[in-house]
Specification:
The complex is a heterodimer of chains A (416) and B (542). Chain A is mainly alpha-helical and 416 residues long. Chain A has 18 helices and 1 strand. Classes of the chains: A mainly alpha (416), B alpha/beta (542).
Chain lengths: 416, 542
């Protein structure tokens, strides 16, 4: 086998350059499943391994990647009042989306995997697959205009403090992707809250503010589009009158469901034609991903269903209370706004940080649903709660498991 | 309970009314959509309350030791029960256990057809097959000695009463040494015509337990018994709470006990009668409800018969014990296999220590998988005569889950009734994790083979991935039909938390019970090894 021989030939020395060897090992095991055979125990092993588990989460995210990238461009042009139809100006929206998203994706993965490889070589074991998913998730949960250096700092924090000091993949207490998000949230609050951050390509969201294009837009792609004879980026465009950049949640906080529906239709919110974090907006595509994860048994349906139930229940309770306009938003529409489904499908179901007993998963899921919606509706500073709710329940999931295990132990004792 | 229910109703009414009010405040005219939403809302509320209370109730019930399987506390269990497949007509429904968890690893090369006779010249007893025996037992024979089947050949210096006997008559030709000069095997070159040590068998009527015990120990029958917890030879003074026999083996390619037991009905029944003398409790028989078992099993008397339907490990005696009469507190129970029980019975019916064994030779690489008749501890090469096996084939004494890798020069272990041959998987596979081309057994639905539940795999010994920390949860529980949390138990063992190990039920497990969990493990953890370490730690504490 030719490729195998090439791989064997370029293998760096393990002692002389441990970091390089770890990198080589990571790439090699990506290309080839190792030839190790079973010893001391079962003689056949299930075909499933961690790489395959993780890659299925990434596969489930693909539609979110596609839609998220395009929606960056779509929201950008919507802000200027240009190409209002979803598929109008397709190439411009796609290119703008890619110019914003690709650097984030590449930087996130390069930094995260770099740290992983460094720590793996220090510890002398293989690179674990955890960051495969974290690296796919982190860009999707950030606002599109987030400066790259903030992304880098947040990832360093999340991977080093959140994961490596606990011992790497499988040992962490908090969801790594959410830790990076929460770091940006608390360290650079102006960059990740308010109405200014959800639409990319502008310095300010005020009407008449100029668009902020880079060399990629005006230099490279404009000359390309000119040559092809199709529409180009207009560097003199400005933010249209009456456009605020506010997300449905921000609107709901200000003026309840009426104010939301003045700006967005229900179908728009459902299909994801709204400003927001990159991957969170298109509900059907997220649900397709969730369905894939449930069908393959990779993510826990108990947690997902628990979250839906908890959220619905809390939504109804708030409807009954009805003290603020936000509380009066019909509970079913709470699902249409914000990132509930994304958090449910991809964040809460992280097997390492979630409760690990089946009974615990129900309780864990339901409580995330309850707490998340409470934070969304009551927290005045930032109307979204899933990040904090999940991290909060991550902290308590060992306690939930403890109670479940304790009941199992007591049952056994009672039998005696 | 009643007041709680009223509270729920009040809460429901409150939510219901509030929903109508809030709905009306949004749209001035209530439409069918609103009522539909309210309907869904009510369902969700109801479901949520049921779900939450059900789980909390479950926890509470566990604390008080209530059996959840009976369905008295669990609402969903009851609903599920409505959709269950009915029990087959040959089972006693009051003693029927329908195990939904488990997985059958379907491999090619099951043994088929008549039991063939095979010429095996050498047999061996391996002291290390008996967990807990000292590494260098006292050997009672010398090289060149002629022994008869049933003659004692060694004993453990810690427990000199318990004799281990020769399985066949012949000449002692080798005492094989293992690591640190421990005794690995005592090898006997068998005579053409077997001769048996003449045994003065007492009558079972009116015999005292003590004299029966010393008779069994003197004649090697004691070593047929196994004690749980720890899977060791029972100590002389131990009185088992119950004795359990599983009459079917659900492991991959395992021999069919119906074939094995044919013609041994009298010995089987006699063995049960002996066991009844030894326990203060009952003798339990676990029967196969997947297919109709042999009449030897169904007609057995003086036993409590339970029926089990389900995939592997439903045939494991450990799983069956858990559902019939779980091990409690400091109690011990005994187990033994069908063939061991027949040997025990024949000691009384035929007055000789007859170690005849039916062994299944299985596996895809074999030209002719078949059943053969031989004796305990047969030589592997002799059994596999006529098969061309090279380095690329692994030979396993036992099944692929908890068997032991052997060379052809080796011998079957004391309880082995199966040899499995399987291809070694020491090849690199391009994108094997992403686009696996060759079919491989898996419980994961990410492999298309889950659509073909009856597909038989060739299988190989590749690990299909590298070892990782525990990441995925709920996986082990999905194939272990016991109320045990294997992953948490493993973590308790790894951290040396003895109290938690016991609490989480380590005493109910043996390696074979956890083997399927090890098979499915995404992180490729060696669970059987970890479990044995835990059991050893516990044993040292006693």
């Amino acid at each position: 086998m030719g490729l195998l021989d090439i791989f064997k030939k370029i293998e760096p020395d393990k002692k002389k350059s441990p970091v390089l060897h770890t990198l080589y090992d990571a790439l090699f095991t990506m290309a080839y499943t190792p030839d190790t055979v079973t010893a001391d125990g079962v003689h056949v092993r299930d075909g499933m391994d961690l790489k395959r588990t993780m890659i299925h989460v990434v596969i489930a995210l693909q539609l979110c990647f596609l839609f998220g990238t395009y929606n960056i461009g779509h929201q950008h042009f919507t802000a200027m009042g240009q190409y209002l139809g979803f598929l109008e100006g397709f190439h411009l929206k796609l290119v703008h989306g890619l110019i914003k998203f690709l650097p984030m994706f590449i930087v996130a993965n390069a930094v995260g995997l770099g740290i992983e490889i460094f720590f793996a070589s220090k510890k002398g074991h293989a690179v674990e697959e955890g960051f495969l998913v974290s690296g796919a998730l982190i860009p999707l949960i950030m606002p599109p205009d987030l400066p790259l250096w903030m992304l880098v700092v947040s990832i360093i924090f999340a991977v080093v403090i959140g994961k490596e000091i606990f011992g790497g993949t499988g040992m962490n207490i908090w969801n790594v992707a959410l830790l990076s998000r929460v770091f940006v949230f608390f360290a650079y609050p102006t960059e990740i809250s308010g109405d200014q951050v959800w639409v990319s390509g502008f310095d300010s969201m005020a009407a008449g503010a100029a668009v902020d294009y880079s060399w990629w837009h005006t230099g490279l792609f404009n000359s390309l589009f000119e040559w092809m004879g199709i529409a180009q980026f207009d560097a003199s465009a400005v933010v249209a009158d009456g456009f605020s950049g506010a997300t449905p949640l921000a609107l709901a906080y200000e003026g309840g469901w009426e104010k939301v529906t003045q700006n967005f239709s229900i179908a728009q919110m459902w299909w994801g034609d709204i400003p927001g974090s990159i991957g969170e907006t298109c509900k059907p595509f997220i649900l397709i991903g969730a369905a894939l994860l449930i069908a393959t048994g990779i993510a826990s349906w108990r947690i997902m269903l628990g979250m839906v139930i908890g959220c619905a229940l809390t939504g109804m309770a708030f409807n009954a209370w009805g003290a603020t306009p936000f509380m009066d938003v019909p509970w079913i529409y709470q699902f249409y706004m914000g990132s509930f489904f994304f958090a449910m499908a991809f964040m809460a179901t992280d097997p390492v940080t979630a409760a690990s007993t089946n009974r615990g998963k129900w309780i864990y899921g339901i409580f995330i649903g309850i707490i998340g919606l409470i934070i969304r509706i009551i927290n005045p500073a930032y109307p979204e709660g899933w990040m904090l709710a999940i991290l909060f329940m991550n902290t308590f999931s060992p306690l939930i498991d403890h109670f479940v295990l304790d009941s199992n132990i007591k049952k056994r004792l009672a039998r005696a | 309970m009643k007041t709680v229910r009223i509270k729920y109703l009040a809460f429901l009414a409150f939510i219901f009314s509030s929903n109508i009010l809030s709905a009306q405040s949004v749209t001035s005219t209530p439409s069918y959509l609103i009522y539909a939403l309210i309907g869904i809302g009510l369902l969700v509320v109801f479901g949520a309350i049921m779900m939450l209370t059900d789980n909390l109730l479950g926890i509470e019930a566990d604390k008080h030791g209530v059996d959840l399987d009976s369905g008295n506390t669990n609402m969903f269990q009851k609903i599920k029960g409505l959709f269950k497949k009915a029990a087959p007509n040959f089972v006693d429904e009051s003693k029927f256990h329908d195990l939904s968890k488990g997985y059958d690893i379907k491999l090619q090369g099951a043994a088929r057809g008549e039991i063939k006779n095979v010429q095996v010249s050498r047999f061996a007893v391996k002291p290390q097959n008996f967990n807990g025996i000292s590494p260098i037992p006292k050997i009672m024979v010398e090289l060149g000695d002629e022994v008869k089947a049933g003659d004692p050949i060694f004993y453990d210096k810690k427990r000199p009463d318990i004799k281990y006997v020769a399985p066949v008559s012949g000449e002692v030709v080798e005492v094989r040494r293992g690591a640190k000069r421990s005794i690995a095997a005592v090898v006997i070159l068998a005579d053409k015509d077997q001769s048996y040590r003449s045994i003065d068998v007492p009558s079972l009527d009116g015999i005292s337990r003590e004299s029966l015990v010393s008779f069994l120990q003197e004649n090697g029958a004691w070593s047929l018994l196994e004690q749980r917890p720890f899977n060791i030879i029972p100590s002389t003074d131990s009185i088992p709470a119950n004795i359990f026999i599983s009459t079917f083996d659900s492991a991959p390619l395992a021999p069919n006990s119906n074939i094995v037991v044919e013609g041994h009905g009298a010995a089987f029944q006699k063995g049960i009668d002996v066991l009844n003398k030894l326990t203060s409790g009952k003798v339990y028989l676990g029967l196969n409800a997947n297919e109709k078992p042999s009449s030897v099993f169904t007609n057995a008397e003086n036993v409590e018969k339970h029926w089990f339907r389900g995939k592997h490990p439903a045939g494991n005696v450990g799983v069956q014990i858990h559902h019939m009469a779980p091990i409690t507190g400091s109690n011990v129970v005994w187990t033994l296999g069908v063939q061991e029980l027949i040997t025990l019975g024949k000691l009384f019916t035929e007055k000789k220590f007859d170690t005849s064994r039916v062994v299944a030779l299985t596996g895809a690489p074999l030209n002719q998988p078949k059943y053969v008749r031989t004796h305990l501890g047969a030589n592997v090469a002799d059994l596999l005569k006529g098969e061309s096996l090279d380095e690329s084939i692994r030979i396993i004494a036992g099944d692929v889950l908890s068997g032991e890798k052997v060379t052809t020069d080796d011998f079957l272990n004391f309880k082995d009734d199966q040899i499995t041959a399987i291809a070694e998987g020491n090849q690199f596979e391009l994108f094997g994790w992403l686009l696996p081309l060759a079919p491989r057994p898996s419980i994961s639905k990410t492999f298309p083979s889950f659509l073909m539940p009856n597909y038989e795999f060739e299988g190989n010994t590749n690990t299909h991935g590298e070892k990782r920390a525990f990441v995925v949860s709920g996986q082990y529980e999905s194939v272990l039909p016991m109320d045990i949390y294997p992953q948490h138990l493993m973590k308790a063992i790894l951290t040396g938390d003895i109290e938690k190990m016991e609490g989480l039920g380590i005493n109910e497990l043996a390696e074979e019970d956890i083997a399927l969990c090890e098979f499915v493990c995404t992180s490729k953890q060696p669970l059987q090894k970890i479990l044995r370490e835990g059991l050893n730690t516990l044993q040292e504490q006693l």
